[in-house]
Design brief:
The complex is a heterotrimer of chains A (about 250), B (about 425) and C (about 500). Chain A has about 250 residues and is an alpha/beta fold. Chain A contains 10 helices and 12 strands. Chain A has a single domain, classed as Rossmann fold, CATH 3.40.50. In chain A, the strands form 3 sheets. Chain A has a 6-stranded mixed β-sheet, sandwiched between helices. In chain A, a hairpin with a 5-residue loop joins strand 1 and strand 2 (about 15-25). Chain B is built from 9 helices and 20 strands. In chain B, the strands form 2 sheets. In chain B, strands 2-1-6-8-10-12-14-16-18-20 form a 10-stranded mixed β-sheet, with helices on one face. In chain B, strands 3-4-5-7-9-11-13-15-17-19 form a 10-stranded mixed β-sheet. In chain B, strand 3 (about 100-105) and strand 4 (about 105-110) form a beta hairpin. The N and C termini of chain B lie far apart (about 50 Å). By secondary structure, chain C is an alpha/beta fold. Chain C has 11 helices and 22 strands. In chain C, strands 4-3-7-9-11-13-16-18-20-22 form a 10-stranded mixed β-sheet, covered by helices on one side. In chain C, strand 3 and strand 4 (about 155-160) form a beta hairpin. The longest helix of chain C has 19 residues, at about 1-20. Chain C is globular, with a radius of gyration of 22 Å. The chains are: A alpha/beta (about 250), B alpha/beta (about 425), C alpha/beta (about 500). Chains in contact: A-C, B-C. The interface between B and C is large, with 37 and 35 residues. Strand 19 of chain B pairs antiparallel with strand 21 (about 420-430) of chain C, so a sheet runs across the interface.
């Protein structure tokens, strides 16, 4: 599904190299987790995958199902099946949540040459998925993320993911700022979307989310590179001992 | 056409009221240029856009209307502060009543001395900010001041001045018509506090030019009051460099006509400026006008304009504030609030809060509200046992508090609060 | 299901509209039709000619000449924040009319030159009964809108006149009204916007050629929406229409005004006057979707839109609501105003003004509170893009006798790109201490983070901007009558084309 080879990324404005050669391969239906200390480049990876401005690719390649991702505009990547659940979802005053979703869904369908959903079809699907995430119709009518609590914003991200049906989902610190119950709800929503074909890249600082979203592979990222990869037990190791040991190992 | 001829006539007669000062060549050149500016622009009149709400007639009449002297039992402003005291009587520097002109971190000279010196750093600053501030709106009375003012101070701040300078302008003659011009240059990393008080004259025209260099800090507190017949026009021109901080607060109580112009320009990035005023006006003859222009021509600068006016018995308060954000002045944060509290039927509040914005990554907001005392809040206080009059006073002071909060020095802020409370008492 | 979409999905339609409408100004075509022109320039003879062509009573001609004499002595005002080449008033045609309309006005629409009808059909304006305004599909309950179509200086036809007559409503062109109800016109014309009011109102008083006249008798709620559609076609002609609407005690009417003009290289002048008289307990809602040709990306051509619109709430509890979406014209200068004379009268102003490329807009409103317990509300959204300049200029005045008057003003500016400007110049004059004025203004830009969020979800940049802008304008769009809301949204999206990237 996703092939990242020797990705090197710096900041456009300053003379700073953030990613110094990232290699990552995610197969179809797999769930990978990336953990690492602050400043290791985790969020940068997610932004670069989605195509955010401000970064300069100085080397390496990224392919999504054979498409050269780095050549594509953000909306093209979305239509190709990439989804980023933001760490800090932005507010858009005056734009209803439902409207936003419908616009996005149909924009992607159109780009892929698929038939757009009618209002009725859209509404039916939306209501079902919203219910399971405990998102009521009131929240659907409010402007996107305006006045939403942290938990509501994250659930809204998962709802969007459910409606847009992406192939490759990148979750950027989805559990940050959430209490245990909120986190569980979000994890349930994510797990409901695991169908064996859809892949996930879960970026997280804390291990606890991985108790609920069980990964196939865990990577440790530090200083702009993936320094160690292993099974789910790697995450438990980090939780017990912190990053110091692993960093020492690799040094 | 006829109207502009009339303006020129008035300006020429007005200039003739003052003796043409003479000094070193550089000073003469600057003064002559200013006089030409004044004559070209002509004296202001009610038809000028920025005098629309304030008739300048009392500021341009020849001769000036007399003003009775006023004395009161209150302690003069700033008396309790450890300061360097300088006194002007009817616009003339009084050596005897003033302290010696020595202040650690500063070099202080009188304007007349400085302008006689052949070579002086002031030649690059005297009249320069005033000239700059003439665009886009004419300020003829400031030009007149540069041209004809002989009295004032030239101050050079070289490092942190712990002691503030307090200038007191004593009004001693019922018919004095006075021009005072002060120039202050703050060097990099320096700090200086200026306190001003006193009616100054029957008619008082002052210009203060302040150049704040990188990372320097300028604090200004000025009080105008309680003289009932005071006619004043003040101009504060400031140029702010990188990371500088500028704060100016004015308290006005009573007076026939007070017009305070503040013209600030951000030249360097990351600087901050606040201009604030608390006004209490009483009577049909009271007219107070704050006209503030802040130009953002640098990145990431923050400006605040906070003006509160309490008006009663037919008084009139005016606010004209403009934030101009030039094309590359991104990340500007401009905040402006002007509020009028009318305590009775006949009082008036007129405001024109303007925004002129040419950059897109800015946060600019302005708000203006006018109203009377909140009946609900009043009832709440009364129901808690506070007598009505006291409750009203509390609410009025609460209203003025936002402006007074802008003063850094707590003691001074409290003093000002107390004087305003006293005004409330004198119904 | 349809209803649900009408409320929520209205915004979604914008995005579709952007894609479906190809090219920019779609009304830029011109109609190939023979027109007669008055001689170039303006003098007393032209004024007389216009009056004669309309077959006006003597007093009307006198009134015009009076205005003309006054205009000759006046100077063009220059205080607005707009910059345009000086207008040569002698280099304009002040009257033009399709030749087929020269003789007696056609008795029915069937007599009108088919080319003219085609123009309106192309513009989506239904002149035949049973159709609706601007491309909205007929919903279940047949919505009727009576239309008065004005082509250059002349009213081409008015629909539904019979039905309206049954209700007692008079809706016809001013030239017809001068013949059939001269006493009504005489009583009210110039009483809200006097001849002396300003340079362009005076000019209009001298040379206005036509416009709409509406009279709603006492107690009548007008059974359908009334609308006038203005189309400037002839080259180098000025359009000076005059609209007069009178709502008698307890009556109400909703009036819509649409305007377009073909693409021309040379700027054209549009100086209109609209007077609304609202008596006790009456209500007028006046909506405008202005889409005059805005000029090309370099500022060539375009309409100069200088309009004086004023509502006089003469009776107690009289209400007026101005809603406008201004997206066109090269230079816009208009301040729909309310004089709140009657006690407890109310004025509302909702506006979206968009300026893109080289457009300049200096617009706003005046709320003059004279009576007691009067209320006014101003919501103004200005959007600047390209190299445009957009200024909000407003006046809120509380007279000494306006006890308990209330005003709330919200003016917001949105900047797209860093080469445009957004300015606010509000005048607040309060002379009464029981009055309350609240004024807020904010300036913001379309946030990069918002755009990226939308794009990551699959929308392209233009769609994303349209969505965010729509959210910005939502409060005003909701105040527009249904038919206009959709047209307005589409217009907003088109006007912003090319503003991104």
């Amino acid at each position: 599904m996703l092939n990242i080879k020797n990705l090197q990324v710096g900041l456009e404005e300053e003379n700073k190299q953030i990613l110094k050669g990232v290699d990552l391969n995610i197969g179809e239906g797999e769930v990978h987790a990336i953990m690492g200390p602050n400043g290791s480049g985790k969020s940068t990876t997610s932004y670069v995958l989605a195509g955010k401005d401000g970064y300069e690719i100085t080397g390496g390649t990224v392919e999504l199902n054979g498409h050269n991702l780095l050549d594509m505009d953000p909306e093209e990547r979305a239509a190709a099946g990439l989804f980023l659940a933001f760490q800090y979802p932005v507010e858009i005053p005056g734009v209803g949540n439902m409207t936003f979703l419908r616009t996005a869904v149909n924009a992607q369908r159109k780009a892929r040459g698929e038939k757009e959903l009618t209002a009725g079809e859209f509404l039916k699907t939306l209501r079902e998925k919203a219910k399971s995430l405990k998102i009521d119709s009131d929240m659907l009518k409010r402007p996107v993320n305006v006045g939403f609590s942290g938990g509501e914003k994250k659930r809204n991200e998962i709802l969007q993911m459910a409606m847009l049906e992406p192939k490759m989902c990148v979750l950027d610190e989805t559990d940050s700022g959430l209490d245990v119950d909120a986190m569980k709800l979000v994890a349930e929503g994510v797990n409901a979307l695991r169908d064996g074909k859809r892949s996930f890249l879960v970026i997280t600082h804390y291990q606890r989310l991985l108790d609920h979203i069980k990964p196939d592979v865990v990577h440790i990222m530090a200083n702009g590179r993936i320094i160690k990869s292993g099974g789910p037990e790697l995450a438990l190791e980090v939780e017990k001992n912190g990053y110091a040991d692993i960093l020492a190992e690799v040094a | 056409m006829n109207s502009s001829n009339a303006k020129q006539e008035t300006s020429m007669s007005l200039a003739k009221q003052f003796k043409q000062p003479h000094g070193a060549k550089w000073a003469n050149d600057i003064r002559l240029a200013a006089l030409n500016r004044f004559n070209d622009q002509g004296a202001p009149n009610k038809r000028d856009e920025y005098w629309k709400y304030t008739n300048p007639q009392k500021l341009t009449s020849i001769p000036t209307e007399p003003a009775a002297l006023f004395s009161n039992e209150e302690l003069p402003m700033f008396d309790g502060v450890d300061r360097l005291k300088i006194i002007f009587v009817d616009g003339v520097f009084d050596k005897d009543q003033s302290d010696d002109l020595t202040l650690e971190g500063a070099v202080i000279e009188t304007l007349s001395e400085a302008t006689l010196t052949d070579i002086h750093w002031a030649k690059d600053l005297f009249g320069a900010l005033e000239k700059n501030g003439q665009d886009p709106v004419d300020r003829p009375l400031a030009a007149l001041n540069t041209a004809m003012a002989e009295q004032g101070l030239i101050i050079h701040i070289t490092s942190k001045c712990i002691k503030p300078l307090a200038i007191r302008y004593i009004h001693n003659s019922e018919t004095s018509d006075v021009l005072v011009h002060n120039v202050i240059k703050l060097e990099k990393n320096s700090e200086f506090t200026l306190l001003e008080s006193g009616a100054g004259a029957a008619r008082f025209n002052s210009v203060l030019e302040v150049d704040v260099a990188d990372n320097a800090k300028f604090n200004h507190i000025r009080t105008q009051g309680r003289d009932h017949e005071r006619k004043t026009v003040t101009h504060l021109f400031a140029r702010l460099a990188k990371e500088s901080i500028f704060k100016s607060f004015t308290m006005t109580v009573n007076g026939i006509l007070t017009r305070n112009d503040a013209i600030l320009e951000f030249n360097g990035d990351d600087a901050k400026a606040t201009v604030a005023g608390a006004t209490a006006g009483d009577g049909v003859s009271f007219h107070h006008d704050d006209t503030v222009f802040i130009t953002h021509d640098a990145v990431n600068c923050e400006s605040r304009q906070v003006f509160k006016k309490v008006l009663r018995n037919g008084a009139t308060g005016v606010f004209q504030g403009k934030i101009l954000v030039k094309k590359d002045a991104q990340k500007t944060d401009g905040y402006q609030i002007s509020q009028g509290l009318l305590l009775d039927d006949n009082s008036n509040f007129l405001a024109k809060p303007e925004l002129e914005i040419y950059a897109d990554d800015v946060a600019c907001s302005h708000g203006s509200t006018v109203g009377a005392i909140d009946e609900d809040a009043l009832f709440y206080l009364i129901s808690r046992g506070v007598p009505r009059k006291q409750a009203q006073d509390m609410l009025v002071l609460a209203f003025l508090a936002e402006a007074i909060d802008e003063i850094d020095n707590n003691d001074l802020a409290e003093d000002i609060n107390a004087r305003l409370a006293a005004w409330m008492d004198r119904r | 299901m349809t209803d649900m979409i009408a409320k929520e999905g209205v915004e979604a339609e914008t995005v579709e509209a952007v894609k479906s409408l190809s090219g920019k100004y779609k009304y830029g075509f011109s109609t190939d039709i023979e027109s007669e022109y008055a001689p170039l320039g303006l003098d007393e003879d032209i004024v007389k000619l216009i009056s004669k062509k309309n077959d006006e009573p003597e007093w009307m001609l006198d009134w015009r000449l009076q205005a003309f004499e006054r205009w000759k002595l006046m100077k063009e005002p220059e205080w607005a924040m707009v910059d345009y080449p000086k207008i040569n008033f002698q280099d304009i045609y002040y009257y033009s009319r399709p030749k087929s309309m020269s003789e007696d006005k056609p008795k029915s629409l069937d007599d009108v030159d088919p080319k003219l009808l085609e123009t309106y059909a192309k513009l989506g304006i239904p002149l035949k009964e049973q159709a609706l305004l601007a491309g909205v599909e007929a919903p279940k309950n047949d919505r009727k809108v009576a239309v008065d179509a004005v082509f250059d200086s002349v009213s081409v036809g008015t629909t539904f006149q019979k039905e309206l007559k049954n209700a007692g409503v008079i809706f016809m062109s001013i030239s017809e009204a001068l013949k059939e109800h001269p006493e009504l016109v005489k009583k009210y014309i110039g009483s809200v916007v006097p001849q002396s009011d300003n340079f362009y109102a005076t000019l209009n008083s001298a040379v206005f050629s036509d416009g709409s006249f509406v009279y709603i008798p006492e107690g009548v709620k007008c059974p359908m929406e009334l609308s006038t559609y203005f189309r400037i076609n002839a080259e180098n002609t000025g359009q000076f229409e005059r609209t007069l609407i009178i709502a008698e005690k307890g009556s109400s009417v909703s009036y819509l005004e649409g305007c377009t003009a073909p693409k021309r290289d040379v700027a054209q002048l549009h100086a209109a006057v609209v007077e609304l008289v609202i008596l006790e307990d009456a209500e007028i809602k006046y909506s405008t979707v202005q889409n005059w040709y805005p000029g090309d990306e370099n500022g060539k051509g375009g309409i100069y839109n200088f309009v004086t619109k004023r509502a006089d709430c003469r009776g107690d509890r009289a209400k007026v609501m101005w809603t406008q979406v201004e997206t066109g014209s090269a230079v816009t200068w208009k301040y729909p105003s309310c004089i709140l004379r009657g006690n407890a009268s109310q004025g509302e102003f909702y506006s979206i003004a968009i300026a893109n490329n080289m457009q300049q807009a200096d617009t706003g409103t005046k709320m003059i509170h004279l009576g007691k317990n009067t209320k006014s509300r101003i919501v103004s959204k200005g959007i600047s893009a390209g190299k445009a300049q957009n200024t909000y200029r407003g006046l809120v005045s509380m007279h000494p006798k306006a006890a308990n008057a209330r005003n709330y003003t919200q003016c917001d500016s949105l900047l797209i790109g860093d080469k445009c400007g957004a300015h606010t110049v509000p005048y607040i004059e309060v002379k009464n201490n029981t009055a309350r004025v609240e004024h807020e203004a904010t300036t913001s830009k379309v946030d990069d983070d918002q755009l990226f969020y939308c794009r990551q979800r699959g929308m392209d940049e233009e769609e994303a901007v349209a969505l965010v802008v729509n959210g910005f304008c939502k409060e005003v769009l909701q105040a527009l009558p249904m038919e206009f809301a959709m047209e307005a949204q589409a217009l907003v999206a088109i006007s912003l084309e090319g503003s991104v990237g």
